[in-house]
Every structure is written in structure tokens, then in C-alpha cells.
Amino acid sequence: MAISLREHGYYAPPAGTRPRPRPFENAFIDRIYATLSPVYDVLFGAPLQPGRRAAMAALGLRPGDRVLEIGTGTALTAPLYPRHCRVTAVDLSASMLRRARARLARGGLRHVRLLAADAARLTFPDASFDRVFAPYVISVVPDPVQVLREMRRVCRRGGLIVILNHFQSANPALASVERALLPLTIRAGFRTDLDLETLLETAGLRAVSAQKVNWPRIWTLVSCIRN
Predict the structure, then answer these.
(1) How far is CA 33 from the centre of its chain?
(2) Model pTM?
(3) Class at the top of the CATH hierarchy for domain 26-225
């Protein structure tokens, strides 16, 4: 069952402020990415690629590792995966997956398979993967806690969960700006007010490392060991 966003409070609303906009649904997100897909690589490719490369190092992939990538988009990460691992990359958007398939075909990336899937309702059995990676997706899903819980469920015990995302700033002044921008950003399909600590705690995860990546340094690469 989907977890109530307001009940768990991981959007970090400050006391005394007006209610947050209602979270978007999958159909809304799908429309956004159908529009963005032709220009997605230009907007979110090279500027965010340093974070993807840092994530590859954090994943520490070994021969034979089973990897799940959540929200693969146009498969910009796919060329970075070593060919000695087995990658399953999922996305909800048919438009993005069409472009992802074209990228895999051009690069001969046969170690990566693509699937259409709702990240909040994965159909994989428990403990199916050694590594689970979510690049730039947690703030664009309707229920980020449920997505993280699914990532935890399908990761084997002792495996690694890596999250690459923007989270609400710990600086009070910057956090207030991010909250003020929320009514605009939510219409563009992403949130700016996710609190990392509360989000992980609610999902049953604990960070073992966190580092800022990309420029400007508003993106965080978080690693969690599946306990």
C-alpha cells in the first residue's frame, strides 16, 4: 500500500507554513517526460554526468554483480556500466524507454536490459540484486518512501543501495528558497523539499556515506548498506 506523504512528513514542511501542493501522480510525470524526452539528453546529460560517474565508483561493481537501476530515463548511465555485470534498468515513461533502447542498440550494450516498471511496485522477488541505483529520480516520483522501500526489498542483505539526487539544503536560508520554489518546480515534475535524513529513516535505510557532486553542489550521492 502506498505510504501517505503528509503522514510521514518527509517533505520537511516547516511549522506554521501553508499546506504543500498535492503530490503528482504517475500519469502527470509521464506527460512531463513525454514532452522532455526529445531534449532530455541536452538538459540532463553532460551537466549531470559527473554525478553518474561518481556513482559508478561508489557502486564498486564486481564481475557478475546484478544491478537494478531505477528511473533510467534515456539510459545515460548505461555506457558507464562495466560489461562484466548484469544490469536491469527500469523506467515508467514509454517515450524515455524508446530513446534508451536506441542508445543501447547504438552502443551494443547487451549487458543492460530495459523494462517498463513502476518503481513503487516492482515485480522482482526479494533480494534479486546486489546493487540498486536510483539516479536523479527520487524527487520526481509520487511516493519516494515507497520507492526506497522497494529498492531495499529487492536488494540482497549486505548489498548496496546508491541514491543520486537533490535534497533540501541544510542551510536554513537556502532551504527557505527551495520551499518557496516548490509550487513552480512541482509543475515541472520535481520536488525541491525532500529531507534526506527523514526520508531514509522512514524507508528503513541508513547512509554510510554521502558526498556532494556536480556543479553547483546541490546534488548528493548517498550510499546505504542493505541490513
Answers:
(1) 15
(2) 0.88
(3) alpha beta
For 105, the 3-state DSSP assignment is helix
Q: Provide the residue type at 111 as one letter.
A: H
Sheet holding 129-135, edge to edge: 112-116, 86-91, 66-70, 129-135, 155-166, 219-225, 207-213
Q: Within 13 Å, how many C-alpha atoms sit on residue 156's CB side?
A: 9
| Per-residue pLDDT reduced to its tens digit, 117-128 | 999 999 999 999
Distance of CA 203 to the CA centre of its chain: 14
pLDDT digits (tens, 9 = 90+) for 179-201: 999 888 888 888 999 999 999 99
What's the angle, vertex CA 189, arms to CA 187 and CA 192, rounded to 5?
A: 90
pLDDT in tens, 19-54: 443 446 888 888 899 999 999 999 999 999 999 999
Alpha helices in 115-171 (DSSP H): 144-154
